[in-house]
Amino acid sequence: MQRFFAENLFDGKTVKKNQLITVKAGTVQSIETADPLDDAEQLLGLVTPGFIDVQVNGGGGVLFNNQPTLETLLKMSRAHQQFGSTAILPTLITDDFATMQKAADSVAAAIAQNVKGIVGIHFEGPHLSEPKKGIHPCQHIREISPKELALFKRQDLGLVCVTLAPENVSVAVIKELVKANVKVCLGHSNASAEQTFAALQAGAQGFTHLFNAMSPLQSRAAGMVGAALLDQSSYCGLIVDHEHVDTTSCQLAIKCKTPEHIMLVTDAMSHVGSDQTELQFAGMQINRQGNKLTIEGGRLAGSALDMASAVRNCIENLHCSMQQALKMASSTPATFLGIQQQKGYLSPQSAADWVVLDNQYYVNATYIAGEKVFG
After folding, report:
1. Angle at 139 between CA 134 and CA 144, to 5 degrees
2. How far apart, in whole angstroms, are the C-alpha atoms of residue 127 and residue 27?
3. Cα(165)–Cα(161) distance, rounded to whole angstroms?
4. How far, CA to CA in Å, does 297 sit from each of 209, 286, 292, 305?
5. Domain membership of residue 362 as a residue range
6. CA distances for 143 relative to 127, 128, 165, 342, angstroms
7. Which CATH number does the domain housing residue 115 bear?
8. Both 175 and 228 in a single domain?
9. How far is CA 4 from CA 20, 28, 31, 116, in A?
10. Catalytic residue ranges
11. What's the pTM?
């Protein structure tokens, strides 16, 4: 049995003072108000549920597409643990089927070996819209085939998320994926609002990086953005790095969807947690300048954002409350993934996954299953 004492604890709903956390076998047994105990580990700062990032392309100097191996997953997970992410979905950008298979096998190995922080996989593509492809390689964008369907439905991958363009994937296929417990996200798409609503009706639950690479809200065509903002039950990933989305647009999204349906995502490339400035991907060179990643011509190419910075940006620049920002980084993505009983909150029977933040919301320490993995 482990015991921890938190002066300040946000459990996912409220902030409490002087909390004694008891942990057994990686699971929280109890959280109760108490006086400091000599035999309890002191957690100095604000203790909050671990961050959950559903869109992580790389980190620690490695990109999942370039090296879809177990070693890459370990490096990525450790890189993001420095910034409070206790659960990530390694994300594979559109690629050939052989690379998709290797990525799936590596994630299956990580799940089987209980690698800390890896909870599943996100296939961002390849069934996207060419006009909204962003940096996704054109030569690999394609229609869905039985072998890809079978890959998405594998039972050894943990949580599976697939981003697709609903104008290029039928409602029947979306229903089939949802029935197999795949989280379907809509993105990299030129779909009309009507096509978007049809996909939501079929069971799609999320939107990948809201506003970016999707048909915009216009006066006579609401587009995917308009449908996403209007729909009350779906979840939207939002990249709050102040490069991808205008501050006012971020505030509008949070006002429309509420923090219960906006989840902070990094869309991080290999640069996070490393001093890397250049990256080769699919014949393109991605350059970092400050916090901005671009290819030749200035097009954005993923981000150098980490979750702790996303939280700070929400508090400092979007005028979110601390609780709202922390929810969007933890309990909201947990609820989207359907794991809110285990992660995203701190309560009896939840995983002992938490972050200790200082008063400027920088990470002092990160814990997974009661074990300090950073700090």
Report:
1. 90
2. 38
3. 13
4. 21, 11, 13, 21
5. 2-48+348-374
6. 6, 8, 10, 35
7. 3.20.20.140
8. yes
9. 6, 10, 10, 20
10. 267
11. 0.98
Are 235 and 275 spatial neighbours (Cβ–Cβ below 8 Å)?
Answer: no
78 and 200 share one domain: yes
CATH of the domain at 25: 2.30.40.10
What does the DSSP assignment read for 76-104? HHHHHHTTTEEEEEEEEES--HHHHHHHH
Q: Report the pLDDT value the prediction gives residue 29, as an integer from 0 to 100.
A: 98
pLDDT at 36: 84
Alpha-carbon distance of 10 to 48, in angstroms, equals 5
Whether 120 is covered by a domain: the verdict is yes
Q: Do 32 and 170 belong to one domain?
A: no
pLDDT beneath 50, residues of the chain: none
Helix (H) or strand (E) holding 228: helix 223-230
**Predicted local distance difference test score (pLDDT) of residue 73:** 98
The verdict on 10 and 74 lying in the same domain is no
* Amino acid making up residue 367: Y
Which residues are 30's β-sheet partners?
22
Structure tokens at 205: 């639950």
Number of domains in the chain: 2
Tens of pLDDT, residues 86-134: 999 999 999 999 999 999 999 999 999 999 999 999 999 999 999 999 9
- Co-location of 55 and 42 in the same domain: no
pLDDT at position 37:
81
26 backbone dihedrals φ, ψ, rounded to 5°: 80, 5
Place of tokens 């005028």: 319
DSSP state of 50: P
- Strand, coil or helix: what is 367? strand
Beta strand 159-164 with 120-124: parallel, antiparallel or unpaired? Answer: parallel
